Fold:
Amino acid sequence: MVSVDRALRLRAAGMSWRPRAGDRFTILQPGLSTEVFTISDMMIEAHEYPTGTVLGFNGTTEWALDSVSQEDALWLPSEGQLREMLGGTFRSLSRGIDDYQVVVELPGRPEQSFRAPTAPDVYADALLALVAAAVDRVR
Structure:
């Protein structure tokens, strides 16, 4: 799962989240931002309302939460989700001694490589570069 720092950067870059079972998230409130929650049809469900998506906590006695607005939740995408979002730009992932490297081919540019301490974080860095390249092409 991606780090909170990179998840915040992905959100700021416009990455949207449609909550589904298995997704992990944290809650951007003091005392909860270090906790990781998982959406499950049995415990935490995404409820769609005209006013927005609410993440409902069903039957959780250890938390004094009934529900939380999606805007207060920060999606922590998995390695697989991040790789999937890279789509056809993804070329390779390799592991070094102390880090991971992802190679992507961004539209209209030569292959680029990114390095980070974890695979999800390096995928996030490559995805942030892809978003930036898309924005540049639109301008």
User: Anything to note?
Assistant: The chain is about 25% helix and 30% strand. The beta strands are 24-27, 37-38, 44-49, 52-57, 67-69, 73-75, 90-95, 100-105, 111-116.
